[in-house]
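Summary of Year 1 activities. Much of the first year was spent building the evaluation harness for sequence design. The harness presents a backbone, in tokenized form, and records the residue chosen at every position. We chose the following record to illustrate the format because it has been used consistently in internal testing since the harness was completed.
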């Protein structure tokens, strides 16, 4: 009975929308609910009913400006539920590519939303609703419709993910941000709602390192945060995890295992690279040329090493970053860094210092660091922010 009431309410909304946009004229607004109730019963008995013909037979209907095909398209998700099934998960790769190519443009998203609605996928309606909410976020009526749509099609939109709105952020019909642990991520990877995922924060434990390294992440990711546990033993292998992420712009590894392998990164869009409490290891599987930083992460703008000790045999690779920095590198954070004085000493004779705008040496203020800063104050005078 509750399901019937819910479908009657949904049909009522649909008919009210037709009346509001002039597609359907009724003798009285009071006729909306009775027609919705009768239509629900009719579709239960005969799901293949020609709704256009049926509406024109109703005394309360004055005019109808929707043809039977359009009515069938709009009512397809409701008919699917009456049959006990799920509405289809539809996709148009060409239209999706247009959306990804202009991620801040609402136009391609509206085109995809229209196509999905025509295909009978309720995601199209969700896209249209959330696009409107992006410009009027406090519209109570739109928010109520969004909530009801999530309730009616929970599995369609969330799959195995519990709909905890604190762990996911939606954007125009797709999940834009997910924060979850490895087990939850495994359960939802591949779900259509993640096809345009941009931000992922994954929490992992020591017994999940191998499982984490084997994951195939959505290629649309622009931000990846990996959050482990302090003093974790084991190895976090990043190369396989990062493969196939051409749009990745921000990579953060926070705490975690005592061995984190970045290998030789090939991340052309990477702008922010941050390690906190994790010793990063590079170039374990092949040669490293002095200018490889510029070639492999050409867009790098910000580097953070926070409690991230570098093994002595690795230092030469990081000194290459000082000698041949990516041209856009403007921010360097060496926080709680035991060898900050050696970084400064090498920067004094390199192009990196001249192009930096921020140098963060918080909790790295040893006596040698203070002496270097004082002795070469003019060399550091151009910095917009110098923290020590």
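For this record, the design step produced the sequence shown next.
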């Amino acid at each position: 009975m509750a399901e019937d009431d819910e479908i009657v309410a949904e049909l009522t909304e649909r008919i009210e929308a037709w009346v509001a946009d002039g597609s359907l004229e009724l003798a009285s607004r009071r006729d909306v609910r009775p027609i919705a109730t009768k239509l629900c019963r009719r579709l239960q008995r005969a799901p293949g009913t020609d709704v256009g013909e049926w509406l024109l037979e109703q005394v309360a209907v004055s005019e109808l400006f929707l043809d039977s095909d359009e009515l069938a398209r709009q009512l397809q998700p409701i008919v699917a539920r009456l049959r006990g099934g799920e509405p289809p998960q539809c996709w148009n790769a060409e239209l999706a590519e247009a959306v990804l190519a202009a991620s801040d443009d609402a136009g391609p998203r509206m085109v995809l939303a229209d196509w999905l609605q025509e295909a009978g996928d309720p995601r199209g309606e969700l896209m249209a609703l959330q696009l409107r909410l992006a410009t009027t976020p406090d519209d109570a009526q739109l928010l109520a419709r969004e909530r009801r749509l999530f309730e009616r099609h929970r599995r369609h939109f969330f799959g195995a993910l519990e709909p905890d709105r604190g762990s996911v952020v939606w954007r125009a019909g797709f999940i834009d941000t997910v924060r979850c642990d490895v087990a939850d991520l495994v359960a939802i990877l591949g779900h259509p709602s993640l096809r345009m995922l941009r931000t992922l924060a994954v929490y992992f434990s020591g017994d999940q390192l191998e499982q984490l390294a084997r994951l195939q992440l959505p290629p649309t990711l622009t931000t990846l945060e990996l959050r482990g546990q302090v003093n974790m033993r084991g190895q976090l292998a990043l190369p396989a995890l990062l493969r196939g992420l051409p749009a990745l712009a921000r990579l953060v590894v926070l705490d975690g295992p005592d061995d984190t392998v970045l290998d030789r990164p090939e991340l052309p869009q990477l702008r922010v690279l941050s390690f906190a409490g994790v010793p990063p290891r590079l170039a374990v599987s092949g040669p490293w040329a002095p200018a490889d930083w510029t070639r492999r992460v050409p867009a790098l703008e910000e580097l953070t090493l926070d409690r991230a000790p570098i093994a002595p045999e690795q230092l030469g690779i990081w000194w290459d970053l000082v000698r041949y920095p990516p041209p856009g590198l403007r921010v360097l954070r060496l926080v709680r860094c035991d060898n900050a004085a050696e970084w400064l000493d090498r920067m004094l004779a390199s192009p990196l210092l001249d192009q930096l705008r921020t140098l963060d040496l918080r909790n790295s203020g040893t006596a040698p660091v203070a002496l270097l800063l004082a002795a070469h104050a003019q060399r550091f005078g151009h910095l917009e922010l110098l923290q020590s």
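The radius of gyration is 28 Å. Quantitative recovery figures across the full test set are reported in Table 2.
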